[in-house]
Each structure stands twice: as C-alpha cells, then as structure tokens.
Amino acid sequence: MAATIAYLDYNATAPIREAAARAVVEAMEVGGNPSSVHASGRRARKIVEAARGQVATLVGAKPMEVIFTSGGTEANNLALNALPFRRLIVSAIEHDSILAAAAATDADFVAVPVDRDGVLDLAALEAALAGCEGPVLVSVMLANNETGVLQPVREAAGLAREHGALVHCDATQAVGRIAVDMVELGADMLTLSAHKLGGPQGVGALIVREGLDVQPRQHGGGQEFGRRAGTENVPGIAGFGAAAIIALDEVARAGKIAALRDGLERQIKRSVPAALIWGEAVPRLPNTCCIGLAGVPSETQVMALDLAGVAVSAGAACSSGKVRPSHVLRAMGASPDAAASSIRVSLGAASTAADTERFLTAWIGLYARANRHGSAHAPAARRA
Ligand code: PMP
Questions:
Q1: Using one digit for the tens of pLDDT, what is the confidence trace for 157-184?
Q2: Rounded distance, CA 71 to CA 5, Å?
Q3: Which atom of ligand 1 is nearest to the CA of 97?
Q4: Could you say which of 169, 289, 290, 318 is catalytic?
C-alpha cells in the first residue's frame, strides 16, 4: 500500500501481511499438486494441511472441519446450498453473497428485520422459525461489513436449535478483529475470507461442523474431503494460514484500534454535530465507523477523499463500481437520502493517528464546502 495514502478501507480488503505474502511466494516456489503422491506433491500437501490447522485454530475448529474455497462469497454459497433446505432465514443486513445466493435457491426465503441500531430482531427470527417443516437454515453474520454492528449469533443459534434448524454464520468481517469461537457461537457452519485479515484475495473457507454432510457445488476431483472439487489454491491457502496466525494476536491489540476509532468519532461529532454514526449505541467491531452526512452523495464524498489521498468506502464496495443506497442502512430505518450519503471508514493494524487526522481534515473541508452550497443538511432524514 503506497505510503502516501491514508488507507482506511480495511473492511473492503486489508493490506497483505508481510508473512502472508512470503508464505504465498514460498508455496509457489515449492510447486507441486497436493493430490500427487510423489515428493513434490507431498510437500504441497504439507503446506495445505499446515494452513488448515492454522485456520481451524483461529476459530476453535478441527482441521478436518475446514473446507478451503475461493473466498467468502463461495463459502456463503456453499453454506446456503449445503442441504436441500426448505426455508432459508437470513438477516436483512447480510452481505449480497448471502442475500442473492438465498434468492437463487428453491427454498422459501425470509429476511429477518433489524432494529434501528442494526441488531437482529430475535422475536422476528423466532416467528420465522415457527411451524417450519423440513431442513431449515438460519444464516446470521457475526459483524456487519458496513456498520460493524455485532449480531446476537449465539442467541439466534439457540432459537434455531430449539426449532431443529441448522445455523450458518458469516464471520468474514469479525475474524481477526474480535475473538471468534465456532463452538461457543453454536454455529454449524462458519464463513471466513483471507483478504479481510491480511491474507491474499481469492481464498477463504467454510468451516463445517464434524458430522454435517455438505452437498458439493463443484463436481470433479475429491479434493477437500469430496466437498469442493478442484486443485487447491496452494499459495493462497499458505498465505491464509500465515495471516490466521497473525490474526489470533491481532485480537489482543484491538484496544489500540478501538481507541483510534473512538477518538475519530469524538472529533467527527465535535466538528460536525449533524453527523450520524450508525450503530453507535450498540456493540460494534473496534475498527469500523459508518458516518451519515445527508445531502452529500457517498460517491462524491469517496471521490473527494480519494483526491485528498484518503481511501474509504461508500458502504459496501460494489463490484460494478456503482453504489446503491445501502440495504443495511435502509434496514435500519435510514431514508433513501441518508442511506445514499453515508460512508464507511475502517481501520486496521497499520492505521495511525496521522491517517485519521488526514481523513478528518479532508472530510470536514468537504462538509464546509457542501454547507456553503447548501447541499449538506442534518440527517434529520434518518427515518424514511
Ligand atoms: N461476507 C461479508 C460480510 C463480506 O464483507 C464480504 C466481502 N466484502 C464477503 C462475505 C465476501 O468475501 P470475498 O470477498 O472473499 O468473496
């Protein structure tokens, strides 16, 4: 990451850790197909199995429960199609790789609302579970990617179990930022993505509780215990393993990042009292700050900040480059204007006070200019 940029977009992707990049290169140098029986294949297999153990340790799972995938999106798709579910119950604020994957199945699909702070409505979840026949899956993310708001996954899992439903948790944004233990969460399946925790892009995992049979989506070879065919991405997996070791330590240092984020939010509110911090009243990830400044479109803010050398996101990064009003903020009761004019600042291991200062100077300048032109206004428009 260029030193001249204040990179504050860790929830989109975290800069790769040196040790992870090294592990990628070393695995490429080793070469070999892990399915080959000769020495070269055995060396590649050793790399994959070492990483499997490292990733399992990160979330309190067993190595054989780890299925390596091409990332969080594939892991989420695999989870939602693990069985021929009759009903899929997901939170309304899930990542698109859950919402679109759920809509693409034959199951009936219920999106459970969240409250104004962005927290899953457990009573609505219970109502959605009532009277369900056949295999049912509840999928609730651990931390929202736009607001950082933590979800009551353990309670949701308890309700799901009472109704005989299985539980999937998308922990993509939580891992490496807060402690995550799959057993403690009560999840049957857990999604991870390497690039959110300092590993390479294009690799992730679905952790599947021992004893649960998952229908493969890819057919072909017998890799990943027959649950995900295709020659393993050995360099990616090696980098994921190296990043997982670092991520375990990272959680212990989360207080430093939280202090930086909290200081930033104090200054935002002091300088621009009209600004909203989404999810501020409830437990959140230590690194995420989602700011509402109604009247100035998110894209305008992101572009102006980019020109000032500050990288942030307009809510969720969108592959097409087009930004829609955030479905997450809309689900929290934001008006279309407020939802389309919020930005996400997300910090990480290398973030400094100089980065947040640079953001503040640029963002306050933007606000002052918008105010002069009469376009910025208090997000009274919070509620639709
Ligand atoms: N789930 C969440 C909560 C995410 O934030 C993301 C990445 N934006 C994904 C899933 C998808 O992960 P990947 O980029 O590895 O496909």
A1: 999 999 999 999 999 999 999 999 999 9
A2: 26
A3: 10
A4: 318
Torsion region of 131: left, alpha or beta (phi above 0 gives left; psi -120 to 50 gives alpha): left
Which atom number of ligand 1 is nearest to the Cα of residue 11?
5
Q: Which residues pair with 191 in a beta bridge?
A: 170, 206
- Using DSSP's 3-state secondary structure scheme, residue 225 falls into helix
Burial class from Cβ neighbours inside 10 Å (0-12, 13-18, 19+) for residue 70 reads: middle
Residue segments in the chain with a per-residue pLDDT below the cut of 70: 1-3, 315-323, 374-384
3-state secondary structure of 193: strand
Q: Is 95 in the pocket of ligand 1 (CB under 6 A)?
A: yes
Residue 168: beta bridge partners? Answer: 139, 189
Q: Classify 191 as helix, strand or coil.
A: strand
Q: In whole angstroms, give the CA distance from residue 165 to residue 136.
A: 5
How far apart, in Å, are the Cα atoms of 319 and each of 96, 99, 295, 316, 322? Answer: 11, 16, 24, 9, 8
HEC-encoded secondary structure of 25-72: HHHHHHCCCCCCCCHHHHHHHHHHHHHHHHHHHHCCCCHHHEEEECCH
Q: How far apart are CA 138 and CA 160, in angstroms?
A: 7
Tell me if 192 CB under 6 Å of ligand 1.
no
The position carrying tokens 């990617």 is 145
Beta carbon of 356 within 6 Å of any ligand 1 atom: no
CA quadruple 267, 271, 276, 281: dihedral sign: positive
Q: What gap in Å lies between CA 325 and CA 228, rounded to an integer?
A: 35
Determine the pLDDT at residue 378.
47
C-beta of residue 156 within 8 angstroms of C-beta of residue 138: yes
298 burial level (CB within 10 Å; 0-12, 13-18, 19+): buried
Q: Is the CB of 351 under 6 A from ligand 1?
A: no
